[in-house]
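Appendix C reproduces, verbatim, an entry submitted by the partner laboratory led by Prof. M.T., so that reviewers can inspect both the input and the predicted structure.
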Amino acid sequence: MNDFAINRRTLIKGATATFALAALHASGMGMFYPSKTYRVALIGTGWYGKSDLFRLIQVAPVNVVALCDVDKKQLAEAAKMVSQRLKTGKTPKLYNDYRKMLAENELDVVLIGTPDHWHALTAIDAMKAGAHVYVQKPISVDVIEGEAMVAAARKYNRVVQVGTQRRSTPHLVDAKQKIVDTGLLGKVSHVEMCCYYHMRNNKNPSTQPVPEFLDYEMWTGPAPLRPYDGLPHVGWWRAFMEYGNGIVGDMCIHMFDAVRWMLDLGWPKKISSTGGIYVQKEAKSNISDTQSALFEYEDLNCIWQHRTWGTPADPDYPWAFKIYGDKGTLKGDVYKYDFVPVDQKEQKIHQDVVYEKEKYPEDVTEPRIELHTAPATRKHLLNFLNAIENNSRPVADIEQGHISTASCIMANMSMKLGRPLVYDPQKREIAGDAEATKLLQRPYRGEWKHPKREDV
């Protein structure tokens, strides 16, 4: 598939084209020439927010107009790093409140790297302000938020790319083209997905005063206000369902979205899940340490399993998907893929991740960078800009992000309720289940107003 159709009207823009040529993906999957310098802002200047912004700076001419964060120290550090990355050396305007930032600046693109409970409000407000949006996954913490985000993107004609960059991972794009699309798998009737990383935070920090540099009230926003027991945005928030959707919302969404993309799957016809906190009971964390989920399609089951303890089922693929066909099996993760044919006379196929350390030497010195995902993020951002230039849908369009996100959210709902769920995306309800339908929307705290598709 060709994600980067040449935008012919910009070929004559020599300087811009020259800049963009330096940003072409190493896989050689086409060219893209931005037609202008994009005015960009970032909401949420933590680890991955900065990472997304730095990848964008690498692949397109941008003017980083503003940065927004509720942590003054983190914001100042990000401003310094951004100014060093920009050729102009200019420091962006700094904001504590994203609403003030949107009101005071004309922006073409807004990147959102906040914790999950802030994705919906910031994305919708950015779209209303005229910006196209690149939002991290999962797109929302409840299903109705996601429905509202899709509605806003369509109403305001904005391009919204979701950070499910497996769809732009070079070796997985290759696997889709060479293995799946050519029919080497045969009939696919079973998928397994997993994560066995010991990633659950099992600490028990004590309650403490909120530091002066953090606006904890604004950080919490529409979510429940927990007693302050440490900087929540330094990974601690992922331990709590108040701010996200656990490991299913964090890790399953990547693999499930990749499988849906590879196999061209839409909404599951039924979702069920079991699990809980079986082993790591000593911690404050309220996300599951053990969980299985089943996403059912016609003649196809997609099964998820995570454990934050013990050993992985397959040490070579501890966070991965495995697609089983009657002619062969495709195993894939962020580092590689393997195709194993049923017929032993047929050739096995293996490919590793693409690195671009020589092409982008600044990657090597960037703190906390995931070198193996940097090429995928660059390609994902180029696809995003290409969609803006051509008024088209990106590869990880908001609707696709919503299906993957909502499916993971409903897996958690099924685990909580102890029964399967069937979602009707037209009626936006759980079929025949009023109790479950109420859980599609979480209550918002205080005066924060929950977005709905009819109100955006």
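The longest strand covers residues 188-195. Additional entries are available on request from the coordinating office.
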